[in-house]
Amino acid sequence: MSYALAISIVLAAALSAALTTIIIQRWIAFDIRRQHHEVGSVVFLQLGVVFAVLLAFVFSGTWNEYNDAAQAANLEAGALHGAALLAATLPAADASAVLSAEQNYLQAVVSEEYPIIAKTRAEDTGADLKMQMLIRTALNVRTADPDQHDTKNAILSLLTQAHTQRGIRIYEGASGVPIALWCVLIGLALVLAFSVSFSAIQYASTAVAVAACFSAGIASILIVARLLDYPFEGALAQPPSDFIVLSGKVSTLLGATGTGPAH
């Protein structure tokens, strides 16, 4: 969902509420609305509490998942950075092999996986294979020096951490609020908005303003929750900034080995 679409939905909600209120004000007498005000206000409050609880639950869940996805990407990039720094201390041939494999993975994540997650909410098979290739490349490093053997184990440990965080990142990008819960929230929002339009406010201009503001506010909150729901798509999509920066650092390390960056 783009910002333009989000703003359009908010404006449409406000306009619809205003038109509905104008129709109600014109066709339903004030005395009739006032007769039902006491019962209606009780029902409105009860439904409002249910809506508020559900909305708080959904918003909190989407916000936490959004932050978890960002944290997973950051931790994955951090583990890969540590592995690259350690790999650069290996003999030139081994360092080049590991760093080249890592560079290939980073390029796949940036150029292929992030767009695929945004479109299909699923991982990119090619990026997953390149992660496996990176781990196998590190595993195949042959070291006679005990210090280098410890370095190899440390690299494998960091790559395992990166693989774990990758799984979390992909899971957060694919999981969202169930459609049934969205339907309940939208249904309650419509009932509450209609109740405000049917309120016993005597002056039409005041009633229209209150209904429009209420509907716009409810729509805005729901839209923000929806934008946070899938962290790698829409107007609030998280960019692969950590991986782009890391790719440049790995290229520098590759250059230091004398082989140059992988293409």
TrEMBL record:
The organism of origin for this protein: Methylocella silvestris
Keywords: Membrane, Transmembrane, Transmembrane helix
Membrane-crossing segments per the record: 44-63, 179-201, 207-228
Protein name: DUF4239 domain-containing protein
InterPro entries referenced in this protein's UniProt entry, alphabetically: DUF4239
Lineage: Bacteria, Pseudomonadati, Pseudomonadota, Alphaproteobacteria, Hyphomicrobiales
Xref: Pfam families: Bestrophin-like
Domain of life (superkingdom): Bacteria
